Amino acid sequence: MALGLAEAGCDIAIAARNEEKNAAAVAAVESTGRRAFAIPTDVTSDSDIDDMVSRAVAHFGQLDILINNAGTTVRKSPEEITAAEWDTVLDVNLRAAFLSSRAVYPHFKARGGGKIICIGSMFSIFGGGGSGAPYASSKGGVVQLAKSFAVAWAPDNIQSNVILPGWFMTELTQAIPETQPERYDNINRRIPMGRWGEAAELQGATVFLSSRASDYVTGAAITVDGGYSVT
User: Fold this and answer.
1) Into how many domains does the chain fold?
2) Which pTM does this prediction carry?
3) Which of 111-120, 176-185, 208-217 is least confident?
């Protein structure tokens, strides 16, 4: 998503915990000819979130787009999940999206508008079951959070939308083909396009929701799933 925005002309602030990954992401963005800046950030820390926003504004002089993309999960049956595990997933997936969006709001308002994109999931639509009740709950909450921002901040020309990715190969899912081959095959059979998504295939929706092309689109949840959710 960051690369897609960079190729569309954006300078990018990368905010995450792992400094090595941050550096690699910055290098990838800079290879497009755009500027990039890494901010070590733990989204479970209120002060880190405030620092993330203030440092991004100080570095670039303005802030136009926020993508709430941090996520984690716990793959257990609901009766096995501890309260601490529940809190961790909700803090990363939902609370951080709220705090980050709240932190950028005054900057967006001062500039006359802005774009917020939250990253949901197929589990924003379907029950999580053994794949993680807190994950599904948080991702369902992300949709309602984005809709709430859309309504509250429309007078400030701030658009807030959600992307709902289907099955993509990420660090959270890359073990499934080997560890759960039957599940992997079942997922593939349900996807009309017959394959999992590649990360670059999230770029189109991201650029659209970040651009003037989506100025009259707010409170929407856009699936990018190869048809999985309609099968």
Assistant:
1) 1
2) 0.95
3) 176-185
Residue type, 111: R
Q: What is the pLDDT of residues 166-195, one digit of tens each?
A: 999 888 788 888 888 998 999 999 999 999
What are the helix (H) ranges across 61-123?
83-90, 96-111
Residue 106 included in any domain:
yes
Residue 14 lies in a domain: no
Does the pLDDT of residue 120 top 70, yes or no? yes
Catalytic residues: 135
- The CA distance from 102 to 114, in Å, is 12
Give the separation between CA 131 and CA 134, rounded to whole angstroms: 9
Residue 137 lies in a domain: yes
Q: Are 139 and 165 in contact (CB under 8 A)?
A: no
pLDDT digits (tens, 9 = 90+) for 133-160: 999 999 999 999 999 999 999 999 999 9
Copy the structure tokens of residue 176: 């499934």
Q: Is residue 16 part of a domain?
A: no
Judge residue 186's burial from the number of C-beta atoms within 10 Å of its C-beta, 0-12 exposed, 13-18 middle, 19 or more buried. Answer: exposed
CATH number of the domain to which 176 belongs: 3.40.50.720
Provide the residue range defining the domain that includes 212: 62-230
Q: What are phi and psi of 165, to 5 degrees?
A: -70, 145
Listed range (19-28, 87-96, 128-137) with the worst mean pLDDT: 128-137
**Cα dihedral 105, 18, 2, 52 in deg (nearest 10):** 20
- Contact indicator for 114, 104 with CB cutoff of 8 Å: yes
Beta strands in the chain (DSSP E): 12-16, 36-40, 65-68, 114-119, 158-165, 221-224
